[in-house]
Amino acid sequence: MDALDILKYGHLTVVSTVKGLPEDQWETPNVCGWWSSKNIIAHLASFELVLVEILSTFIEDVPAPTLKKFGESPQGFNDESVAERQHLTPAETWAKYEKTQARAMELMAEIPVEVRRQKGQLPWYGLEYDLEDFVVYTFYGHKREHMAQINVFLDLLTSKNQ
């Protein structure tokens, strides 16, 4: 398992899913709860920001306010982060996701592989896990889950149009 590959393939899952999403359907609600596909991408963009902050702490001692907010109230974080991006167009939302995802890839590449694979680097996640475990379970799986929801939505659109 390699963290860069995990991030790359998680991102490719998102890209391949949203390329099939008609432009006029990005803001249709109820794809995931009350969230639209745009809201899901906004949510993933905020998760990418959490990852950027986590990875940044491996490189230098920097504050991580988004991570702190996420840790204090995951559900509140989700709702607030989507609400903060509500005014954005789908294209702007996508651009924010892509920019933050690219930054996460850059930062991950700066962290030596042996550091990524050292257990206990994220004690708040669990001493038995390493950074690559965290990325697989928290980011790759998370993207797959939400892309499955968008794919179900796309299937429903297709069946309605037949």
Structural features, described:
This protein is mostly helical and 162 residues long. It has one domain (3-153): dinb family like domain (Four Helix Bundle (Hemerythrin (Met), subunit A), Up-down Bundle). The protein has seven helices and no strands. Helix 2 packs antiparallel against helix 7. The longest helix is centred in the C-terminal third of the chain and has 30 residues, at 131-160. The mean pLDDT is 94.
Helix amount, in percent?
Answer: 55-70%
The overall strand count is: 0
The top-level CATH class is Mainly Alpha
Measure the end-to-end span. Answer: 41 Å
Q: How would you describe the shape?
A: globular
Give the tags:
162 residues; mainly alpha; Four Helix Bundle (Hemerythrin (Met), subunit A); 7 helices; globular
Topology of helices and strands:
Blueprint: H1 3-18, H2 37-59, H3 65-72, H4 74-84, H5 90-110, H6 113-116, H7 131-160
Gist?
With 162 residues, this protein is mostly helical.
